[in-house]
TrEMBL record:
Protein name according to UniProt: Probable protein kinase UbiB
Localization (cell): Cell membrane
Naturally occurring in which organism (per UniProt): Marisediminitalea aggregata
Molecular function terms, GO-annotated: ATP binding; protein kinase activity
Function in brief: Is probably a protein kinase regulator of UbiI activity which is involved in aerobic coenzyme Q (ubiquinone) biosynthesis.
UniProt-listed Enzyme Commission number(s): 2.7.-.-
Membrane topology listed for this record: Multi-pass membrane protein
Name of encoding gene: ubiB
GO biological process: regulation of ubiquinone biosynthetic process; ubiquinone biosynthetic process
Length: 546
């Protein structure tokens, strides 16, 4: 199965001519020779641009590769515009599957004979089609509400399982043979990605995620989450309020309605850090196809988020560590950054902090006090990778989702408002969060939160205190008994050892005595006595202490 899938991947890449995008001087002679030997797989898309060929190839390979293309489409600082524009089509313009099949899935999931029982209107033309599901516009009979119906692609699980199995095989090979394999931990990263994408195949989970996110931002001016109608949600069908916002990638439409792009970009950063540090629950698939802007109040713009299949969570330790690192970066306290990495175990404990500090300063100092448009993040990433390799920094799989989301947020900020000072926007938020976690105010907040628990336990405190004092009073007596038992056990062990030595000596003597002219009863008695000594040693050794 994996070999067939690997062949299919290579076939798709060759059919779309992606091998021709690699300069010939980079390929060894045997790779070029092998390509000429596979003459039956020609380039069938010679008339298309490089970006179109990459987009079509990723689309043909399925959801795992489509999502990779979605992430790349937000990195316009790393890709030429013509390629980034083509990859952007993967966000919601993947080829749809048959509408009749979609309607059959909906009827079967909702257990109705006709869609008219649930919807007064149903648009057979998909409103959008993505890598894992497609969406149809409809009108819900109950409440006469405009909704969208998301339907999972049929047989999508088989494709994803095959791809993730292949990725796992490749990851194991890389981890074993690459010099940086163990440090990069590709197997753990693939496992984390596999869990994430498999979770995305359950639309009831997505519905629950959306409702949680909606509660977190209820009444917020920064982010609106559409209502999800859980009564009509199943594992492969989701019904949600229809929104009429402007896609975040449509910059022309945003400018046309006089949207305040500076506020919009700043709120994007605010929403991200609020999700991560306030709620510990963040939308982890924030590519432009899933983000819209409300048409109301362009001077005070509001985001609209959809597609909650992938969310991330962080524990308190991760949040604290990240926040302190961000603050240290913003304050250019590279010494603290280096020390935090060592304390957290990201780099070995014997790392030279002075050298690590210098390396981090060399990479990060040039990017401060510059707008996003002037920052070469591609160059920064390369330098950080080299720094990580030099100091044996270990990849943290639990933060992969957060890292991916940061890439999306950065890409959106670059498109909306290149002059945005990302650091100054995020720094006050993080400093405020840290103040809430440390100090007198934080202490009183925690006491207040735990007050109901302690109020419940307060009546039991006198009994607990009395029992504790009784145990303390009896402690010397119990300690004395324990010491006596230990001495008795030690004495028994000594006796057992003595019997063992005597028994071994007698058995050896019983084996030597027959060499002399003695009656056979003598060695027999000696040997029997030795065996009895061994039995006595075993018996004393097995007796439990009183």
């Amino acid at each position: 199965m994996r070999i067939l899938r690997l062949y299919h991947i290579n076939k798709v890449l060759l059919e779309h001519g992606l091998d021709e995008l690699i300069p010939g001087r980079w390929l060894p002679w045997y790779v070029r020779f092998l390509r000429h030997c596979i003459f039956w797989i020609p380039n069938r898309h010679k008339d298309k641009s490089a970006g179109a060929r990459i987009m079509l190839a990723l689309q043909a390979l399925g959801p795992v590769f489509i999502k990779f293309g979605q992430m790349l489409s937000t990195r316009r600082d790393l890709l030429p515009p013509h390629i980034a524009n083509e990859l952007a089509l993967l966000q919601d313009r993947v080829a749809p599957f048959d509408t009749e099949r979609a309607q059959h899935i909906i009827r079967q999931s909702l257990q109705v004979t006709s869609l008219d029982e649930v919807f007064s209107e149903f648009d057979t033309t998909p409103l959008a089609s993505a890598s894992i599901a497609q969406v149809h516009a409809a009108r819900l009979k109950e409440g006469d509400i405009d909704v969208v119906v998301k339907v999972l692609r049929p047989d999508i699980r088989k494709t994803i399982v095959a791809d993730t199995e292949l990725m796992m095989t490749l990851a194991k090979v890389l981890q074993k043979w690459l010099p940086d394999g163990k440090r990069l931990r590709p197997v753990e990263v693939v496992k984390e990605y596999e869990k994430t994408i498999v979770d995305e195949l359950d639309l009831t989970r997505e519905a629950a995620n959306g409702m949680q996110l909606g509660r977190n931002f209820e009444g917020s001016e920064a982010l609106y989450v559409p209502t999800i109608y859980s009564d009509y949600c199943r594992a492969n069908v989701l019904v949600m309020e229809r929104i009429y916002g402007i896609p975040i990638s449509n910059i022309e439409a945003l400018i046309e309605q006089n949207t305040n792009l500076r506020i919009l970009a700043e709120r994007g950063v605010e929403v991200f850090f609020t999700q991560v540090f306030r709620d510990s629950f963040f939308h982890a698939d924030m590519h432009p196809g899933n983000i819209f802007v409300s048409r109301e109040h362009p001077d005070n713009p509001q985001y609209i988020a959809i597609d909650f299949g992938i969310v991330g969570t962080l524990n308190q330790e991760d949040k604290r560590y990240l926040a302190e690192n961000f603050i240290a970066f913003f304050n250019r306290d590279y010494r603290k950054v280096a020390q935090l990495h060592a304390d957290s175990g990201w780099v070995p404990s014997d790392t030279n902090i002075d050298e690590f500090e210098v390396a981090i300063r060399t990479v990060c100092e040039p990017i401060f006090q510059k707008p996003l448009a002037e920052i070469s993040f591609g160059n920064v990433l390369v330098q950080l990778f080299n720094t990580a390799r030099r100091f044996n920094m270990v990849v943290q799989p639990q933060l992969v989702l957060l890292q991916k989301t940061l890439l999306y947020v950065e890409g959106l900020g670059r498109q909306l408002y290149p002059q945005l000072d990302l650091w100054q926007t995020a720094k006050p938020f993080l400093e405020n969060w840290l103040r809430e976690q440390i100090g007198v105010k934080a202490m009183f907040t925690k006491v207040k939160a735990n007050l109901p628990f302690w109020s419940e336990k307060l009546p039991e405190m006198p009994d607990l205190l009395y029992d504790t004092l009784k145990q303390v009073k009896r402690f010397p007596e119990k300690q004395q008994q324990a010491n006596l038992a230990l001495l008795q056990q030690h004495a028994r062990a000594q006796k057992a050892l003595h019997f063992s030595i005597v028994g071994a000596t007698l058995v050896i003597v019983s084996a030597i005595v027959p060499l002399y002219d003695v009656h056979w009863t003598v060695p027999a008695c000696i040997g029997l006595t030795g065996m009895m000594c061994w039995f006595a040693a075993w018996w004393k050794g097995r007796k439990a202490p009183e």
